[in-house]
Design a protein that fits this description.
This protein is an alpha/beta fold. It has two domains: about 260 residues, Spore Coat Polysaccharide Biosynthesis Protein SpsA, Chain A (Alpha-Beta Complex); about 90 residues, UDP N-Acetylglucosamine Acyltransferase, domain 1, CATH 2.160.10. About 20% of the residues lie in helices and about 25% in strands. A seven-stranded mixed beta sheet has the order 5-4-1-6-11-8-12. Strands 14-17-20-23-26-29 form a six-stranded parallel beta sheet, with no helix packed on it. A hairpin with a 3-residue loop joins strand 2 and strand 3. The N and C termini lie far apart (about 50 Å). The mean pLDDT is about 90. Keywords: ATP-binding, Carbohydrate metabolism, Glycogen biosynthesis, Glycogen metabolism, Nucleotide-binding, Nucleotidyltransferase, Transferase. InterPro entries: ADP-Glc_PPase, ADP_Glu_pyroP_CS, GlgC_bac, GlmU/GlgC-like_hexapep, NTP_transferase_dom, Nucleotide-diphossugar_trans, Trimer_LpxA-like_sf.
Length: about 375
């Protein structure tokens, strides 16, 4: 089954910086923008880029993610040959069960990739918000006769130490790479999007295992090895909206930006749709004395209070007299009567009882975890 390109979405991250929101679910499965989960963007980019063979590599708390992705039907990836496949760690002959890093996750899935005998491997992160045509990046990769192409974009200098940072020559060839440097020499950051010539990457991964040398992570091991051997590595400069939602602050900020009808991401663009799992739920209901302003209210919501500049995900209930402002309310949350919520993220299936107050202060975002109870009796439903 010869396939030109196979995509592997690395979706096993714990997302520890998201705190309460990822105690019970992997970061790529966190709710975003009312109707979506974070992984929907990488999956939709694959479908829109006509990459139809996609492995979704999971590890940490995969239940919600597995159920959400399923067989890829909602992204048009349910195919007889190829499609979307959930790939989880398994016990190997040497007893290894978990992925040691990004490259090790690919190594453990060599047999899956080889089923399709691809010329190119597209490696993606499952926890970024963006739209990108991977076909254009692949065309660039071919034109440069590259063995590895890395998508890059400039980031604010104060954030550069969070990323893999690289320097390029005039042709775009990468000549230096530093993984999360304390004192970055540039602000050109890796987006965690790679295109490899599969045969060469596979050789690096297998040779490292045979020699007992570490080759577990792309940033720490694979890219430096390619550079040491003067392999042809190029930077593909991406222009557009891209957000790493790895912190509470960045997740809240990305959701607030999502409310802007002129947002660069343009979620209503029918030529590059972002797909998600279709949920059968009731229509939204806005009561007569409710007030909704500058907000997204998705299906299944019941609003009897006031909602300002906020996102209500599926099946959220807002009681009479309650005010929700500058906040993100994730699916199936119940907010009772006479509550006040401002600058907050409330996780899935949470319950705020009558009179509860939750206010993000001094630049911080207030957070309620999934299934958490605030106010009232803790054992109450």
């Amino acid at each position: 089954m010869k396939t030109e390109a196979v995509a592997m979405i690395l979706a096993g991250g714990q997302g520890s910086r998201l705190g309460k929101l990822t105690k019970q679910t992997a970061k790529p499965a966190v709710s975003f923008g009312g109707n979506y989960r974070i992984i929907d963007f990488a999956l939709s980019n694959c479908a829109n880029s006509r990459i139809n063979t996609v492995g979704v590599v999971t590890q940490y708390q995969p239940l919600v993610l597995n159920e959400h992705v399923g067989n890829g039907e909602n992204w048009g990836l349910d195919r007889h040959s190829g499609g979307a496949t959930i790939l989880q760690p398994y016990s190997s002959i040497d007893g290894e069960k978990f992925f040691k890093g990004t490259a090790h996750a690919i190594y453990q899935n060599i047999e899956y990739i080889d089923l399709y005998d691809p010329e190119y491997l597209v490696v993606l992160s499952g926890d970024h918000i963006y739209k990108m045509d991977y076909e254009k990046m692949l065309e660039y990769h071919k034109a440069k006769n590259a063995l590895l192409t890395i998508a890059v974009m400039p980031v604010p200098w104060e954030e550069a130490s969070r990323f893999g940072i690289m320097n390029t020559d005039e042709s775009g060839r990468i000549v230096e790479f530093d993984e999360k440097p304390e004192e970055p020499k540039s602000n050109l950051a890796s987006m965690g999007i790679y295109i490899f010539n599969w045969s060469r990457l596979k050789k690096y991964l297998k040779d490292a295992v045979d020699k007992g040398t570490p080759m577990d992570d792309f940033g720490h091991h694979v890219i430096p090895a390619y550079l040491r051997n003067s392999e042809s590595i190029y930077a593909y400069k991406f222009e557009g909206y891209w957000k790493d939602v790895g912190t509470i602050e960045s997740l809240w900020e990305a959701n607030m930006e999502f409310l802007d009808p002129n947002h660069e991401l343009d979620i209503r663009d029918s030529s590059w749709r972002i797909f998600s799992k279709i949920l059968n739920t009731t229509p939204q209901q806005i009561m007569g004395d409710a007030k909704v302003n500058d907000s997204m209210i998705t299906d299944g919501c019941y609003v009897a209070g006031e909602v300002k500049h906020s996102i209500l995900s599926t099946n959220v209930k807002i009681g009479r007299g309650s005010v929700v402002k500058d906040s993100v309310i994730m699916p199936n949350t119940v907010i009772g009567e006479n509550c006040f919520i401002e600058k907050a993220i409330i996780g899935e299936n949470a319950h705020l009882y009558d009179g509860a107050r939750l206010i993000g202060e001094k630049g911080n975002i207030a957070v309620v975890g999934n299934e958490e109870r605030v106010g009232g009796y803790k054992d109450e439903d």
